[in-house]
Amino acid sequence: MTGPVPFAKAHGLGNDFILVDDHHRPSDLGTWTRRLCDRHVGIGGDGVLLYAARPSNAAVGMRLVNADGSDGEISGNGVRCLASFMVWKGWMPARHVVETVPGPRAVDVEALGGARFRVVTDLGPPILESGAIPVTLAPPAASVVNHVLQAGGESVTVTQERRTGRAAWRFREARPLAA
């Protein structure tokens, strides 16, 4: 691959992604993605979403490459960003399918004005088992919900889930940091 690569930048609910047509994917995808996602010398992003639009099927293929160059399964925010971009460009109807590694996700995109969209989709049930997230607990837990975590001499109640290729912590309590 030589020459400039067309891309778009999208963000949703705290994540930002670089969207690139899969035809422009280089052979060394990991190095390329790490360079693009570097927030100091690159475009900056949580990952690259490679897409392959299939308008005749009202579907778009999505491959998530994390900022570290590793492959991701799915990102809910990534699905929403890509679905919105496809509708914004006029390449997909408001109701279409985003084909992800874990399976197809039907989306319903509503334009809110300008470049703002609301996207409804079903990402499936959350994974809460400690070994499947993964998180190391001794002993392993069937569900990491309202788990008391000891950190810095303090107890914090947390819930961890995995709906995407990455795990997410949800803190149930917040304590002010010492000045």
- Any idea how many domains? 2
Write down the overall mean pLDDT.
86
Distance between the termini: 51 Å
Helical proportion?
Answer: 10-25%
Q: How large, in whole angstroms, is the Cα Rg?
A: 18 Å
Question: Briefly, what CATH class of the largest domain?
Answer: Alpha Beta
Question: Would you tell me which CATH topology of the largest domain applies?
Answer: Diaminopimelate Epimerase, Chain A, domain 1
Instruction: Identify low-pLDDT runs.
Output: 165-179
- Gross morphology is globular
Q: Indicate the proportion of strand residues.
A: 35-45%
Largest sheet: 8 strands, mixed
Number of helices: 2
Q: Pairing-aware structural class of the strands and helices? A: mainly beta
Q: What would a concise description of this structure say?
A:
12% of the residues lie in helices and 39% in strands.
List the helices and strands and how they pair.
Elements: E1 8-12, E2 15-21, H1 29-37, E3 47-54, E4 59-66, E5 71-72, H2 76-88, E6 95-100, E7 103-113, E8 116-121, E9 147-151, E10 154-161, E11 168-171
Parallel strand pairs: 2-3, 4-6
Antiparallel strand pairs: 1-2, 3-4, 4-5, 6-7, 7-8, 9-10, 10-11
Write a structural description.
The strands form 2 sheets. Strands 1, 2, 3, 4, 5, 6, 7 and 8 form an 8-stranded mixed β-sheet that branches. A 3-stranded antiparallel β-sheet has the order 9-10-11, with no helix packed on it. The protein is mostly beta strands. 12% of the residues lie in helices and 39% in strands. The chain has 2 domains: 8-121, Diaminopimelate Epimerase, Chain A, domain 1 (Roll); 130-171, no CATH class. It starts with 7 loop residues before the first strand and ends in an 8-residue tail after the last strand.
